[in-house]
Amino acid sequence: MGLFDFFKKTTDNTGSNLAASLIPKTCPIEIPADIENEIDKINWTGYHTAYGSATNTIPFYLKNLFCADNKISMDATHQLWCSLCHQHVYISTAALPSYDILKIGLTKLDNKLRIEILDIIRGFSTCTSDKYYTATNHTPADWERALKQKLLADLKLFQKLTNHPNSEISAFATDIVDDLTNAD
C-alpha cells in the first residue's frame, strides 16, 4: 500500500486532510482534446508514484496542468513534482509516461508553468544522471534507462532553453543539460 492509499484509508483528521490534498481537483474548464486523449491512452495501472499507484492521481494532475485556471494548473505542477520526482532524490515509474505530456506542456504553456515543468524534469535528469547512480550505488532499472534516453533525445530542446530570456527557465535548462552531459 502506498502513502496515498494509506492516507485515503485513515480516518483521523490529519490523514483525511492529507488525503484530501492529494486527491486532484477537476479542472472545470475543458482541456485540449488531443492532450486529454494522449493521457487517456496510457495504461496507468502499472505505474507508481512516491505515494502509491499512479492510476487515480497522475492522469488528473497531467490534465489539470493544461487547465486555464492558473490555481489548478499550478497545484498540478506541485503534485506532479511531489509524486514523480520527490524532492529530486527519488523518481517514480510514472515519470516515464508522464515525460511526454510534460514535454508538450513545456512547449505550449506559459513561462510560469514552464519553470515548474522544468523543475520536475530537473528531478528526472538528476535521478537518471551518472553522478546520481554513482552516489547512490544504484543500478538503473530498464524504465530509468528509457527515461534517460527520452531526455537525451530532447537535449537540443534543453540546450535551446539555456538561452531563454527568463533566468529561471535558462537556469533549470542549464542544470538539465549538465546532468545529461555529465558536466560538473
Distinctive features:
2% strand; mainly alpha; disordered N terminus; 184 residues; 11 helices; Leucine-rich Repeat Variant
Account of the 3D structure:
By secondary structure, this protein is mainly α. It has one domain (3-181): Alpha Horseshoe (Leucine-rich Repeat Variant), CATH 1.25.10. It contains eleven helices and two strands. It has a two-stranded antiparallel ribbon. The chain starts with a helix and ends with a helix.
CATH architecture call: Alpha Horseshoe
| Outline type | globular
How much β-strand is present in the residues? under 5%
Helix content: 55-70%
Q: Output the number of helix runs.
A: 11
Topology order in helix (H) and strand (E) letters: HHHEEHHHHHHHH
Spatially, the strands of the biggest sheet line up as 1-2
Give the oligomer, counting copies of the same chain as homo and different chains as hetero: single chain
SSE class: mainly alpha
Low-confidence stretches: 1-16
Describe the sheet with the most strands: 2 strands, antiparallel
Q: Assign the CATH class.
A: Mainly Alpha
- Rg computed from alpha carbons, rounded to a whole number of angstroms: 16 Å
Mean pLDDT metric:
87
Short description:
With 184 residues, the protein is an all-alpha fold.
Topology:
Layout: H1 3-9, H2 13-22, H3 33-40, E1 48-49, E2 52-53, H4 58-65, H5 70-84, H6 95-108, H7 111-127, H8 130-136, H9 142-153, H10 155-161, H11 167-181
Antiparallel strand pairs: 1-2
Helix pairs in contact: 1-2, 4-5, 5-7, 6-7, 6-9, 7-11, 10-11
